[in-house]
Amino acid sequence: MRASMSQTSDNSSIISPTLHHFGVTTSHLERMVEWYSKVLGMVTIYSTSNALESEAGVSPGLTFVSNDKANHRLAIISLPQLKDDLT
Asked: How far apart are CA 49 and CA 51, in angstroms?
């Protein structure tokens, strides 16, 4: 019988795939960073402070994460103007 993620320890549920530099966009930066941390063991290498303010008052953000010694494996780009796809 296979244990569900809630029944396993945090360390045993993390997988470590080899990813090659790619980027994803989101309107939920913090949630995405947390997901990649919990599921793939990624840590933040660099993150903007959302200092770039658009004319509409919407701040883009950027976080680079990695799960090995690479300078980054994934760029998570926050575009707050994106809308959730409810379909």
From this structure: 5
Q: Given CATH 3.40.50.720, say whether it is the number of domain 20-50+57-81.
A: no
Cα distance between residue 33 and residue 24, in whole Å:
11
Is the C-alpha dihedral spanning 11, 14, 20, 24 positive or negative? negative
What helix, strand, coil percent values describe the chain, rounded to 5? Answer: 20, 25, 55
Separation of CA 78 from chain center: 10
Tens digits of residue pLDDT in 38-53: 988 899 999 986 555 5
Give the integer Cα–Cα distance in Å for 44 and 33. 8
**pTM of the predicted model over 0.85:** no
| CA 54 – CA 78 distance, rounded (Å) | 13
